[in-house]
Amino acid sequence: MPRLLFLAVALLGLALSLGSPTPAADSHVDVHVVEGIINPVVVEYMTQSIEQAEAGNAGAVVFQLDTPGGLVESTRLIVKAILNANVPVVVYVSPSGARAASAGTFITIAGHVAAMAPGTNIGAAHPVSGEGSDIEGDMRTKAENDLAAFARSIANQRQKNADWAEEAVRESVSITETRALEIDVIDIVAEDLADLLAQLDGREVSVAGEPVTLHTADATMVSKQMSWRQRVLAVISHPQFALMLLSLGSLGLMIELYNPGLIFPGVIGAISLLLAFYSLQTLPVNYAGLLLIGLSIIMFILEASVASFGMLTLGGAVAMFLGALMLIDSPEEYLQIPLSTIIVVVGTTAALFTFIIGAAVRGFRNQPVSGSEGMVGEIGTVFARLAPTGTVQLRGSLWSARGATDIEVGEAVRIVGVEGLKLTVEKATEERIS
Known about the structure:
Layout: H1 2-19, E1 28-35, H2 40-55, E2 60-66, H3 72-83, E3 89-93, E4 99-101, H4 103-110, E5 113-116, E6 121-123, H5 137-157, H6 162-170, E7 174-176, H7 177-182, E8 188-189, H8 193-200, E9 204-207, E10 210-213, E11 220-224, H9 228-236, H10 239-258, H11 264-281, H12 287-303, H13 311-327, H14 339-365, E12 379-384, E13 389-394, E14 397-403, E15 411-419, E16 422-432
Parallel strand pairs: 1-2, 1-11, 2-3, 3-5, 4-6, 5-8, 14-16
Antiparallel strand pairs: 6-7, 9-10, 12-13, 12-15, 13-14, 15-16
Helix pairs in contact: 2-3, 3-4, 5-6, 10-11, 10-14, 12-13, 12-14, 13-14
């Protein structure tokens, strides 16, 4: 019996070991493409991607990176998420021609494995102001020292070249993938994703302080995209859309103010302005340009009520054009608003403001020509003596009327007010109407 019991336990253990599935961590690798400016939308996308990889027991999560840079605060949040991830994070600067500039340098070095494709570059991480220009004085020293220490700290934790990381911040140096591999800035140069996974296989990394061996040779690549909401917000964050939304929002609200009750222009205007403000907070905004755009809108509104012979419209168009040119103040081409977009937006806005708001103001000024309000100012004839109330004939109909003084039958009176079905009148002439 003891022998049979021992044999049964041994067979049960063997069956369980043979029936155990391969750990899900080695079954698939999540691949995410990160392109464009590093902003709050990208922060949300990358942090959620890491959380999903952890929840799905992915063998690793790969970020295929191509960025010209971005916001410092957004970069810090992404680096924080990568450093504290419970799944191996691989940052792969790809495809050929891509770059990990500025913010991309910190993100690449922060990965458990840093990789680059042939024909890519990394570096140029010197800090600039929110307007895209160089920081001067003590603030420059403070920002530079802060980011240099940040870069060195990341590099030391990932056992990368900390001296070069600091130099990338202080001197804005940039290097190719071959040089980055030579001086221990990155770990791998891979032709494509398949080559990357092949080179990752068997590599040991430290995840949450524990050694983890990657098994990626036979892993399935699972490509994942931004959610529809993130894609919409990413599009809105583009400088061109920020300008168009700002213009559309201002126009919509002005139409609603001059035509109360239309509802639709006001709703569209409010939504557009809120989206414009969201977009502008993710961009290096020059507030002088924003004020010029605001001044142009004021000029367009005044044109509708002030006889300036078109000078206010011209001034508004010039102010908006200059404001749009200055709105995004950055030396980077990817942040510039194309001249063609500026011309279309300024021309359309000026024309709509002049036509729609002008028509609304003129309509407001015109006296109504129908209904009871349209009778004010007209001349009627006393049908029954006003003492001080009586009857007045107007437009072929008889109306109850009240006068300030007694007025005899046949005398002309001018309508000065209408209250329901009763007119308020005053004597218009001393002569009788025959």
